[in-house]
Amino acid sequence: MPEFKTTFVRQRKYIFLLLSIYVLGWGFTSYQSIFLGLILGTSLSLFNLWLIVRKTQRFGDAVVRGEKVRSLGTITRMASALLAVMLALEYPKELHLVSVVFGLMTSYIVIMIDYFLQSFYLRK
Predict the structure, then answer these.
(1) Transmembrane region positions (predicted)?
(2) 100 lies in which domain range?
């Protein structure tokens, strides 16, 4: 599983880079609600990525030991996404709903880009 952890660390760095860009955008532009929505969505997306990595590691360990595994935490990840959308609907002036949803998808976009970059560099 060391490769699995290094992949997560690399993806986490990319997401932190995006979050820092979003914070700069929030601080220095007039599109504060859009960038705040991106910050909220991306933060919860990073949390969801961390959750799935942790649950996958536990799942792999349980399979090796021959134990049963309850779930991979789908309900928890859906609940965090629902929380973000509910916050955006409750505070529409502060949080832009579309940017919150886009922020929630950020980890999946980062995973795909990371996969293509790694497969490109491994072919060389």
Answers:
(1) 12-28, 34-53, 97-117
(2) 2-123
